[in-house]
């Protein structure tokens, strides 16, 4: 069995190391992205809900970019919400800005009671295009 091919966005690996998980794992042509929350660079949450959702999408976008992907490559999304009924309108407005036009990825929204001090989390699976995110060493 081969080692996990971990992907980290620039400047945030210390946060992942501190919490003992990878931002994403590449497996073949798939990228499995851990749940991204609205954390600032120092790991603290954005206090305002819409800003927290925007930051979660920005953090997801950074992980995708680190693997040579974009939202166009996302095939499956799962979001977690601490108060879905009150939050859904805000989330959908930001989602529309970030995800763009159809066809949309699969999407599952889950209501939860706890997200470690956050109110929104987004995780995704993306297909990696041939050659995306390769380093010179991986092509040699």
From TrEMBL:
<dbReference type="Pfam" id="PF01042">
    <property type="entry name" value="Ribonuc_L-PSP"/>
</dbReference>
<protein>
    <submittedName>
        <fullName>RidA family protein</fullName>
    </submittedName>
</protein>
<dbReference type="InterPro" id="IPR035959">
    <property type="entry name" value="RutC-like_sf"/>
</dbReference>
<dbReference type="InterPro" id="IPR038743">
    <property type="entry name" value="YjgH-like"/>
</dbReference>
<dbReference type="InterPro" id="IPR006175">
    <property type="entry name" value="YjgF/YER057c/UK114"/>
</dbReference>
């Amino acid at each position: 069995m081969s080692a996990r091919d971990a992907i980290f966005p620039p400047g945030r690996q210390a946060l992942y190391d501190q919490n003992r998980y990878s931002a994403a794992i590449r497996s073949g042509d798939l990228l499995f992205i851990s749940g991204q929350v609205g954390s600032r660079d120092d790991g603290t949450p954005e206090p305002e809900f819409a800003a927290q959702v925007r930051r979660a999408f920005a953090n997801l976008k950074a992980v995708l970019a680190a693997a040579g992907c974009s939202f166009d490559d996302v095939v499956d999304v799962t979001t977690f919400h601490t108060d879905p009924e009150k939050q859904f309108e805000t989330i959908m407005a930001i989602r529309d800005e970030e995800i763009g036009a159809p066809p949309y990825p699969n999407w599952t929204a889950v209501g939860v009671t706890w997200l470690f001090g956050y109110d929104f989390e987004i995780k995704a699976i993306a297909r990696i295009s041939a050659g995306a995110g390769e380093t010179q060493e991986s092509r040699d």
